[in-house]
Each structure stands twice: as C-alpha cells, then as structure tokens.
Design brief:
The structure is a homodimer. By secondary structure, chain A is an alpha/beta fold. The first copy, chain A, has 2 domains: 198 residues, NAD(P)-binding Rossmann-like Domain (Rossmann fold, 3-Layer(aba) Sandwich), CATH 3.40.50.720; 103 residues, UDP-galactose 4-epimerase, domain 1 (Alpha-Beta Complex), CATH 3.90.25. Chain A is 40% helix and 18% strand. Chain A contains 11 helices and 14 strands. In chain A, β1, α2 and β2 form a beta-alpha-beta unit. At the A-B interface, α5 and α6 of A face α5 and α6 of B.
Chain lengths: 304, 304
C-alpha cells in the first residue's frame, strides 16, 4: 500500500486484522492518501458495503487482493480457515470488481499452487498443479476464479506467484521462528526437519518492485508470473546458521529428522522466472543476500 | 451408481435433486443394494449427518463425488451457484472423507479446468489452467482441494477430467437442446454460433467404463486422467445435422454468428488421452458414433 501511495495513488485498505497490524500502514496513512477500513472480506455484504462507502460514488481503478491466511499448518488442521480467508476473500473481491466495474485485479498467488515437482524447475506452464496444502489449493482456486471472472468483467488481471518471501515486519516463517526461539533459549536452536530443505527466498522489497512492474507492464488479459530470485535457493541449515550468527553465536543448532518440516512443506523447490525476466524485471538480491538482510532487519525489529 | 451396484458394491447416493431425478436410480434401487438419500451436500452438517446415518457404524470404502452444477451459463450469471454446488460439495465431501476415515475418493472433474488452449492438444500436464467459466474454476478448485486433502487423510484419489459427454438420459447440452427446439418448431433449428465449434464427445457408457477402470487400475495417490475419444471431435454443424436427420429431416438449420455459443464456451478443443491409453483403457465409440447413438437414444426418450 505504501508503495502504491508513493506512486501517487489514493488507496483504501480493507482487512480483518486477524494477522495484520494497522501500524504497518502508519507511514502511508500519514500521507493523507491511504485510508484503512477494518472489515472481514470473507463477509460479502459487509465487504461490499465498505467498498461502496469508501468509493462514495467515485470509480475504483484497481483491486490489489493480498489478504489470505498465511499460517499454512493452521489451514491444514482446519481447512475452513483457508476456504474463508484465502478463497472466499478472492471470490468476494471478484464479485466486488463486477459490481463496482473496477477494471484491474492484482492478486498475490503463491508457488504453493504447484505442489511437489521435486527437482524439476517450475515454470508458469508446469502442470498439473497438485497443491499439498489447503493454502495452496485455495490460491489455485482463486487463480481459476479470477480467470473465469475476467471473461465477463474487468479488463485485466495480474497473478503473482510468490516464492518464499523474507523481510521485516515478519509474522511467521523460519527466520522469525528461529529468532524467537533463540530469544527464549540462547544456547539451543531446535530446527524442524534435518535442515536440508532448500528453497529460493525473495526479499520483500524485490517482491513489491516486481508486483508494481507486472501490474504496469503486463497488458494481457491474464498476466501470470512466477516471482523469485534467479538462484536455486538456500537450505534451512543456512538460515539457521545466519540467525545463530546474528542472535546467539554460541547456540547449538539441533536438527530434527526427515526433509519435511510439516504437512504442506516442500523439501526442494526450483523456480523459473525467465518469463518475468523477459518482461524486463530482475531481482536485486539473491536468496542468500535476501536471507542475510532479513535476518538483520527482523532481529533488530524484535530486539528485546 | 448402477454400474457400481453391478460390480457388487452397496451404494448410498446423496443428492439434492436440483438437477437429478431419482427415477434414474430405479433399476439400481430395485436390486436392494442401492439407497437414495435426498440431502444438500453443500450443507456440511446435514451432509455429515446423512452419511453417519447411512453408514450406521460400518466403514465406508469410497466416495464417488459426481455432484455439480451442470448449467455452465447459469454459473456464469451467478458465480454463487458453482461455488455452492460445484465446489462446496467437494469441500464437504473431503471433510466427510476425513471424518469417516474413507480411504478412496473418486471425482468427476472436467476438461473445463484447462481453459482455451486453441489448437494445442491438451494433456494432463498442460498448463497453466485458466478456466473461462465459473464451473471450470470450481472444478479446478476441487482438484486442488483433493490433492491437499490427500496429504493428511485418505489413501488415494481419482480425478477424471471429463470431455463433453453425450447419451441418455440428458438434461442439457446441444443434442438435448436441438431435439427440444425441433419438437416445438419442426421447420427451423436455430443454432447458437456459426456451427464451426469442434469438440470431442464421449458416450456416457464409455465414460462409466473409463471411471471404473481408473478407480481400479490407478494405484497412485492422485490418479489424474483425461477421459475422451481418440479423435479430434465433431462440429456443432455435424450434431445439428444428425438431430435434424432423426427428428425433422425437412427442417432448415439457421446458424448464428461467431465461433462461441456462450461465455465459457470453447470453440475448438483437442484432448490427449495417451496417459489413459497407457494405463490400458480405450473408448469403444468415436465422437461421431457417440453423437449418432446419443441422438437416437435421446430422441427416443423425449418422444412426444
């Protein structure tokens, strides 16, 4: 939102604050060009009423739909969470796009739509998508519903397939968890799985840059892009060691067993971003640089 | 259901009868091995209560989930119809699979998950899936949810990607529409679109045969198969002429404009079924033979 405000747009943010924090919008709100409305986007009537009030007769230009349940294990334990927070929010935002004749829809999807392709490098046309978490399933469902909706309303949509993203402020993820564990016990860092899981990580600043780029440059009806770094990623062991070095250099890292930390976790992951490179965007940070910077920033933010 | 009963299984059928007709189950029910329960599968509490009552302590062996909204234009006009009847029925059936520890899940998906790939021959790994109807979107959503659910419950699932299916009894579709139009006006047959749309059609008897085959032979966790004839299909013109020849040989066929009959219609469609052939199944009827037989059977069934 802050980035959209910086580009000169007026922005209204709708969120139920189940995982968000309105303090993250303070800088944007201070500009006078960003408003915040607390509403549950999964409640269609409330959501539409909130949009109607916010627009007050003006024409909306674009919906940026970033809301979702971000706690994948919670969604595995109770599929209703992802149904409501990850899918019905999309479904309702598309109904709002139709009702308020909003021409653009930009959507935060996820590499979780793909499922486990092992060592295969995953491109946008890799299939079949067989997500292994309810989160990934409801992101895939959202993508499908966007494509269908664009047949009868809206002018164009972006679908951003996020990789693992790191940066501050963090609410979850390996870096956040490791830092919090070491705050409690400075001598031991227990790690889920054997540490060999390897994934690509993108810094949140690069992610925002990529989304703004695609939203502007992608002029197809459906603009579907993997977003990620160009490298093959880093291991959980690398992340654990980064966190240890910054937070508690003398801590012992204790690994678990197996190459999956939890149901819905994918041990290896290779992501093709050639399509986005061809459109003209490149990340500024590799996975290791993104993780190093995120560890510093998150550790500073959660300093005791 | 009748086919499952013929194979010696005890079957309980759950349906809200919004588009079905319990008379289609008469032969199966007469065997004493098939029961029918009227319930809305999109109503989780009612659906689970109905399953619990039907099982009465016994262990369920498999869920065959065939319920969906089959009126694609209705779903385009009101996306809530496909959300409820096509997706939430799947979502709830998967929750039932978990709750009642049912090991198998067999699902009627659709070629509509793919969207419009033009002249490309579509295989199971063709992507990205970009459905152009809410029906297709909610079938894709169902597939994703099945894959995710199988991570934590169930032993294996089949996903049958149906082609266009023809045969009696029919409740919708080009053949059914054309016959009914000619019943009303024996001299003219108006056709949506210019008649050049070409699609593959499978006879319903072949479809049932393929599903039973995959359910038995597919021993992966997720068994995803395109089901269809081997040919490139027949045109709407061919179907219109078949119907005219059987129902009203002197009628004039009047074509519309454009190569799409309605939103969500795909003008051309080529379907690869090599994967299913490799598993060991082949259709007995080509598209033209399937259409000819279906025209005869449906015309006989709806005879005035």
């Amino acid at each position: 939102m802050t980035a959209l405000v910086s580009q000169g747009h007026d922005v209204v943010t709708f969120d139920n604050l189940s995982r968000g924090d309105v303090r993250n919008l303070e800088a944007a709100i201070a500009t006078g060009r960003c408003r915040f409305v607390e509403v549950d986007c999964a409640d269609l009537d409330a959501f539409k009423a909130a949009i109607r009030a916010a627009l007050s007769g003006q024409r909306g230009r674009a919906i940026w739909h970033l809301a979702a349940n971000s706690d994948i294990p919670a969604g595995v334990a109770d599929p209703q969470i992802d149904l409501r927070d990850t899918f019905l929010t999309t479904f309702n935002a598309l109904l709002a796009m139709r009702e308020f004749a909003i021409p653009e829809f930009h959507f935060a999807s996820s590499s979780a739509v793909y499922g486990d392709f092992g060592d295969l490098e995953i491109a946008e046309n890799t299939g079949p998508c067989q997500p292994i978490s309810n989160y990934g399933a409801m992101k895939l469902a959202s993508e499908g519903q966007i494509c269908a909706a664009l047949e009868s309303c809206g002018r164009r949509a972006s679908i951003f397939r996020f990789p693992n993203v790191v940066g501050a402020p963090a609410t979850h993820g390996a870096i956040f968890d490791f830092i919090n564990k070491l705050r409690v016990d400075k001598s031991h860092l227990p790690v889920l799985g054997d540490g060999t899981q390897q994934k690509a990580y993108l810094h949140v600043d690069d992610l925002i840059s990529a989304m703004l780029f695609i939203a502007k440059a992608g002029q197809s009806k459906i603009n579907l892009y993997n977003i990620g770094p160009r490298d093959a990623g880093v291991t959980v062991r690398f992340i654990a060691e980064c966190v240890r070095d910054v937070v508690a250099p003398n801590a012992e890292i204790i690994y678990g067993r197996g190459d999956r930390g939890w149901v819905g976790d994918i041990p290896r992951f290779r992501y093709a971003i050639d399509r986005l490179a061809k459109l003209g965007w490149e990340p500024t940070l590799s996975s290791d640089a993104a993780v190093r910077r995120a560890v510093r920033d998150i550790a500073a933010a959660v300093a005791p």
